[in-house]
Amino acid sequence: MQMPPHDPAILARRGEIVAALRALVPGEGVIDDLEGMRPYECDALSAYRQMPLVVVLPDTVAQVAAILRYCQDAGVKVVPRGAGTSLSGGSMPVGDAILLGLGKFNRVLEIDYANRCARVQPGVTNLGITKAVEHEGFYYAPDPSSQIACSIGGNVAENSGGVHCLKYGLTTNNLLGIEMVLMSGEVVRLGGKHLDAEGYDLMGLMTGSEGLLGVVTEVTVRLLRKPATARAVLLGFPTESAAADCVAAVIAAGIIPGGMEMMDREAVKCAEAYVGAGYPLDAEGLLICELDGPPVEVDHMVERVASIARERGATTVRVSADEAERVLFWAGRKAAFPAVGQISPDYMCLDGSVPRGKLVQVLAEMREMSKTHGLRVVNVFHAGDGNLHPLILFDANDPDQLRRCEEFGADILRLCVRVGGVLTGEHGVGIEKRDLMGEQFTDIDLDQQMRVKCAFDPDHLLNPGKVFPKLRRCAELGRLVVTQNRLPFPDIPRF
Amino acid sequence: MTASLRPRDAAEVREAVDWALGSGTTLDVRGRSSKIALGAPMACGAILDLSGLDGVLEYAPEELVVTLRAGTKLADVEALLAQRNQMLAFEPPDLGPLLGGVAGEGTLAGVVMGNLAGPRRLSAGAARDHLLGFSGVNGRAEAFKSGGKVMKNVTGYDLSKVMAGSWGTLAVLDELSVKVLPAPDCTATLILDGLDDAAAVAAMCRAMGSPHEVSGAAHVGARTAIRLEGVVPSVAARLAGLRELLSATGARLAILETLESRAFWRDIRDVRPLEARPGDAVWRVSCPPTEGPAVVARVRAGAPVARWFYDWSGGLVWLALPEGDDAQAALVRGALAASGGHATLVRATEAVRARVPVFHPQPPALANLARRVKESFDPTGLFNPGRMG
């Protein structure tokens, strides 16, 4: 993974930059010693590591604004960071950039049950929001698997999802407002406790912008009332295509499950060996379908799902009898990644998204690729919304395996795009999929996105080296060549 | 007379924009003109009429996605979805009659470009939440795309969000992919009669915070309506729960069954209960739900003849006021100062819309950012110049 070369002029000015930051953020808020910076050298994409120029941990919005204004004036790059759980390298440090950690912004500012929203600082964890409101029967819906650690600010940056997206949406569908600081140091508030924007939906644009547009300093999220009940149905099928057909049939029948997960035979085997969730080992495709809502509705839907599954040839149909069993059904799925870790020294988790109707084709082609690349692949995915998480098994100590793994991963993502899908469903582009952006987008598509970036960050100082395979200067992107043309399609009467 | 260009495909859209750019001609970009009276008046060099881009290109019910061309009528898309028991969950309103036109003429793309949504906005989101991807032409006459046709996608910036609600000022969209959802088997509405505004909003907020999955909450006159949708046994059970929850309000309770309920919410969606008269200015106010009654009280203090009703549990206030010189903009927007939110002047004569900002003014840093975003798509200001102020 190639990152932009470090600017020697910036490296030479390190002492001066550290001093300037100390003047803005007192005490322990500036970390410039190697040992102190070590915890920040990578995020959850830990195959890639890099020490930042210096770490700064502000605790007020005014400090964030002052830091960004200083960096803008001094031409210093900035990498924002929440909890550092990005799986795509979104918060990986850059050697000639300061690392701006938002960890000290960890307070819940206001909970407003009547308007069903909470105003929190960006460093509050995703689960922390739910913990703050669950005693009143409320929760915050998006639930990425890292929710115990990941921050809501990072969720905004990545537009994080989770297993309940199909019914409850991603981060972008659950936000009401944000406050953010631009590289200029200007503080801008978007939205609030009301719905929709008075002008352009810049909050929607910010969500999922991977820290390249602005630094979020406050978030207002929508709270939902916890569903009265949830029950899970475990469905085993003799073929993967029967399992995939069942997913389509459930949705076509008008049922939107709270969660709809699929695991292939290998994943079932690993998970079962690891947690003993009682999964059927003879199934080629296993579905976990969760229905939530009022009890009478859940009972009704469970019956319908079970009967659709039987019509599709399910060999196992088990409905959770109680909460303990529901949790057990999920335990295997939730432990799938560590379970795979038991059978392989390393694995790479991918995140393509495809039309549901292409699932079977994609799985079959992936198996062929597995033979070509000589590496095993295990599949768990959010079948309800077509979001795949193939795990490629390899040994990172063998450089050839690492290389083959990267190539295999790239081939899988190209396949996703080829069948009408996209490179990433919820993990983000970051550095991981940056160089594949050209598979999905034309140069014009990417130039347009970079022009949007220029509107926020004209010097490309914020989170450099991420998302875009090649950066073009804003001045160059802004050039406009106009040629005179005749009035088009003259065969149509137009006056 | 203004030139009118009516492209028949995406290539001709690009050609038309290329010509406009080369000749320095600004474009009045429109679908079927049903919402042309919404926004600041424009003086454009030519009309870019997208009604020739007609038809649904792809519809796979089990994928929950429909892909259509920009000139496709909303009514046609809804009829197609209804055949498979699906719907556009954001309940797109038909503002045609409110704006002085006829019903059933607008395009789905037009609704998306206005980020409009009906009563189900509360539980299902707005148009912005359902636009999965698009292709179009920017102000450099370049064809580009963003998003896709899959449910879950975080690849690159989510330009769909900023297109929704841009009123055609950023780019000319030629193709859109929109998320669809199953239509509910049945719907029922609990009516509470006799509550004043404050009590009504309190009751609606309680209902919204209950586990009964409310999908609409409106208050018109002394009538408060709370909608439940879903499978039959579920709606019945939730209705019982809701009655119990709200019995303490002291209001008289009644129930609207499926057909009556549908008609009631269609009217709310299309702003009919406001009974806007000729000569009325119509405002659409978005505020925190609990603030709705206070906002209305402040407006009434300055304009006793104002008429109003609430949707979105109190968070959407429709207001009708005598138009006068300025549609009482200072009064309406001033009423929001303490509560937060925004007010859009949805209907007024051209003269008033030329004087009063139709869209809520933004603080300078935000307004400047919005201007730079506009320029990033349309550097010379070709598309709908001035429509958003």
Short summary of the structure?
The complex is a heterodimer of chains A (495) and B (389). Chain A is of the alpha+beta class and 495 residues long.
Listing every helix as H and every strand as E from the N terminus to the C terminus, the arrangement of chain B reads: EHEEEEHEHHEEHEEEHEEHEHEHEEHEHH
Strand order of the largest sheet of chain A: 15-12-14-13-17-18-16
Q: Gyration radius of chain A, to the nearest Å?
A: 24 Å
- Gap from first CA to last CA of chain A: 56 Å
Number of domains of chain B: 3
Q: The CATH topology of the largest domain in chain B, please?
A: Uridine Diphospho-n-acetylenolpyruvylglucosamine Reductase, domain 3
- Let me know the average pLDDT of chain B: 97
Overview of this structure, please?
- The complex is a heterodimer of chains A (495) and B (389).
- Chain A has 495 residues and is an alpha+beta fold.
- Chain A folds into 4 domains: 8-101, Uridine Diphospho-n-acetylenolpyruvylglucosamine Reductase, domain 2 (2-Layer Sandwich); 108-225, 2-Layer Sandwich (Uridine Diphospho-n-acetylenolpyruvylglucosamine Reductase, domain 3), CATH 3.30.465.10; 230-337, Alpha-Beta Plaits; 344-428, Alpha-Beta Plaits.
- Helix content of chain A is 36%, strand content 19%.
- Chain A has helices spanning 8-12, 14-24, 34-37, 61-74, 126-133, 152-158, 165-168, 202-206, 240-252, 265-275, 295-311, 323-334, 336-343, 359-373, 399-418, 437-440, 443-456, 474-478; strands at 30-31, 54-56, 77-81, 97-101, 108-112, 117-120, 138-139, 175-181, 187-191, 215-222, 224-225, 229-237, 259-264, 285-293, 316-319, 346-349, 377-382, 387-394.
- Chain A has a 7-stranded antiparallel sheet with strand order 15-12-14-13-17-18-16, with helices on both faces. Chain A has a 5-stranded antiparallel sheet with strand order 5-6-10-8-9.
- Chain A is globular and about 70 Å long.
- Chain A starts with 7 loop residues before the first helix and ends in a 17-residue tail after the last helix.
- The mean pLDDT of chain A is 94.
- Chain B has 389 residues and is α+β, with helices and mostly antiparallel strands.
- Chain B has 3 domains: 51-182, Uridine Diphospho-n-acetylenolpyruvylglucosamine Reductase, domain 3 (2-Layer Sandwich); 186-269, BMC (bacterial microcompartment) domain (Alpha-Beta Plaits, 2-Layer Sandwich), CATH 3.30.70; 274-355, Alpha-Beta Plaits (2-Layer Sandwich).
- Chain B has helices spanning 10-23, 74-83, 108-113, 121-124, 159-163, 197-208, 232-246, 258-269, 292-302, 329-334, 350-355, 364-377, and strands spanning 3-5, 27-30, 46-49, 56-60, 65-69, 86-87, 131-137, 143-147, 172-179, 181-182, 186-193, 214-220, 223-230, 252-256, 280-286, 307-311, 316-322, 342-347.
- In chain B, the strands form 5 sheets. In chain B, strands 4-5-9-7-8 form a 5-stranded antiparallel sheet. A 4-stranded antiparallel sheet of chain B has the order 12-13-11-14.
- In chain B, a hairpin with a 2-residue loop joins β12 (214-220) and β13 (223-230).
- Chain B is globular, with a radius of gyration of 21 Å.
